[in-house]
Amino acid sequence: MKGNKTYSKLKRILVVLLILMIIFTVYVEAVNRNSKNMTGRQKILKAAYPFLLWVSNLKGKNKMLANEKNVQPLQSLYDLKVALNNGDSLSLSSLKGKKILLVNTASDCGYTPQYNDLEILYEKYKDTLIVIGFPANDFGGQEKEGDEKIAQFCKMNFGITFPLAKKSTVIKSPGQNIIFKWLTDEKSNGWNNQQPKWNFSKYLVNENGALINYFDPSVSPDGEEIKKALQ
User: Fold this and answer.
1) For residue 61, how many other CB atoms are within 10 A of its CB?
2) Which one from 47, 80, 109, 210 is the annotated catalytic residue?
3) Distance from chain centroid for Cα 127
4) In the CATH hierarchy, which fold is given to the domain comprising 64-230?
5) What is the pLDDT of residues 38-87, one digit of tens each?
6) Residue 61, C-beta contacts closer than 8 angstroms, at least 6 positions apart
């Protein structure tokens, strides 16, 4: 009798798990109905993104730093250039008068759906803001593709129109991208040493070339924190 009860209980659990799996599969497919050339992992990560943000907010992992003393850079950001993924070069001096949001990105990350939010942000504030993505394979090996495939992925799945840099290393190392070296070295930017914590860490530079904010990956591009900083 005891064995029958155990079997019956186990059977109910398996049925519930099966139903949950079916529901989740349907949800994943619905979320990704317009996705193109995404792997199964990428589809699941896209579907799970809202839950990831919810957990991050619940744990209070939304670190933000601000240049409250209005410290000016010791080296001008406008002296630097961004090597773009199409082979061109973008001189940051051409962006004087606009805010610049610089974000290290990856195609196979739980935060990858932020590409969509970044594009919306860019379109909304296009007259006063430029967004630049910096694809990197520094965290979890989540950007293994080359520049051409990265650009195709971003265009097909998120309609990205803002500039993407050539794939590089953004963490502290001898080969660190010169832009991120400036962003993470107080001897250059004047106050901040915060390295990217993971993919989609965000650094905001004001209209005069001063670094004014750092935002953790879990701070959404469409969140009030970033919108307030853009005002």
Assistant:
1) 13
2) 109
3) 22
4) Glutaredoxin (3.40.30)
5) 888 898 888 888 878 778 777 766 899 999 999 999 999 999 999 999 99
6) 216, 218
